[in-house]
Amino acid sequence: MRISVLGTGMVGRAVAARLAEVGHDVAVGTRGVDATMARREPDAMGNPPFATWLAGHPHLLLETFANAARYGELVVNATEGTATPAALRAAGADNLAGKVLVDVSNALDFSRGFPPSLLVNDEDSLAEQVQREFPQARVVKTLNTMNAHVMVHPESLGGGDHTVFVAGNDAAAKATVVSLLQQFGWHDVIDLGDLSAARGTEMILPLWLRLMGALGGPAFNFKVVRATG
Amino acid sequence: MRISVLGTGMVGRAVAARLAEVGHDVAVGTRGVDATMARREPDAMGNPPFATWLAGHPHLLLETFANAARYGELVVNATEGTATPAALRAAGADNLAGKVLVDVSNALDFSRGFPPSLLVNDEDSLAEQVQREFPQARVVKTLNTMNAHVMVHPESLGGGDHTVFVAGNDAAAKATVVSLLQQFGWHDVIDLGDLSAARGTEMILPLWLRLMGALGGPAFNFKVVRATG
């Protein structure tokens, strides 16, 4: 499938590289291609500049948000939550219409430092805000509850025996996303229901951030342990 | 230890019975003893009236919030989140001073039906509100992220291989609580740090409620799967 991944940060890189690895044709979307390629310094998290990273992934395309969204049959929003509305507007409603839009972002506000605060509560979610603004996109929320590496390599942790959630209003779109998740190696995908369930997964971030502190790093995930029989 | 459990609902009953079972002397606290004992109808969740339940647990005392709090060397708040401030005021600051106050409540508002909405966000938590109002109590947040039965019988689910969180400002109080959790059968207790981490565990409730719907019941819990080595 032709897939576009909007966002050039850790999450966008991880998802784009893994989608290509499992056989998809991938375009990464950015606000300005020249500016992204011109960066020479590591980002705030110490990641290498995008051009350095891209050189190691020669099959990936780098395009503007609009061109990338036009290219993809399916679009992944991997921008930071605070940057998501502007990125999707730049991608363009026409380029998203009718397509599965996988939202992996979180509405975290880092403007007052770490830990960030959450910009949504259980009256709304970032995913629903996106769906309201782009009603013709088929938004599916997933993968926002774990570290970028765990997202695309679930087998790296506990033999892959842990959980990823999906939520969305379009059953066929969710089925498409579940299939992609299985290609990544996910075995336990829980369908939480309609897109308002994204409130629940987005609100797990404050606990996730505390756990990262308590455990000394991001290499963990939640498993939903159920009663058997 | 002499322990008081404030609250006569499902959570209060489960915690009180289990504490007695593992050898503690337990007083259950209620707003009005006569009114609680006079109820003859099941509650909204279909639980038997308290008097019926108490008849099966003859070693438990039933006292007013104030008398129960006075009795306990350690106090458990198992009231509903919306009822917590009034219950603790009735218990009395003097009766809580210097004691470990285990807060297992959640700030859920059922006034608009099910699912309830959450009355806190990651700027504050019910546990911190309690700590601010009762600064001499040694508040520890725990057990608010699973069903009442799972709280006290973790072995009933997945062989007990799942996680409970603690948060609090007083290390000795947390150690006391961890010891009680171990008596209940908990093996994986994660200390999230100071009481502000209760924001994270309280905000997991919207996901918990969605999971209860998706899985068809409350017999589940989160396990934090970590990288090994």
Structural account:
- Two copies of one chain form a homodimer.
- The first copy, chain A, is of the alpha/beta class and 229 residues long.
- Chain A has one domain: NAD(P)-binding Rossmann-like Domain (Rossmann fold, 3-Layer(aba) Sandwich), CATH 3.40.50.
- Chain A is 38% helix and 21% strand.
- Chain A has eleven helices and eleven strands.
- Chain A has an eight-stranded mixed β-sheet with strand order 3-2-1-4-5-8-9-10, with helices on both faces. A two-stranded antiparallel sheet of chain A has the order 6-7.
- In chain A, helix 1 links the parallel strand 1 and strand 2.
- In chain A, helix 4 crosses helix 5.
- The first copy, chain A, is globular, with a radius of gyration of 17 Å.
- The mean pLDDT of chain A is 95.
- At the A-B interface, strand 7, helix 10, helix 11 and strand 11 of A face strand 7, helix 10, helix 11 and strand 11 of B.
- Strand 11 of chain A pairs antiparallel with strand 11 of chain B, so a sheet runs across the interface.
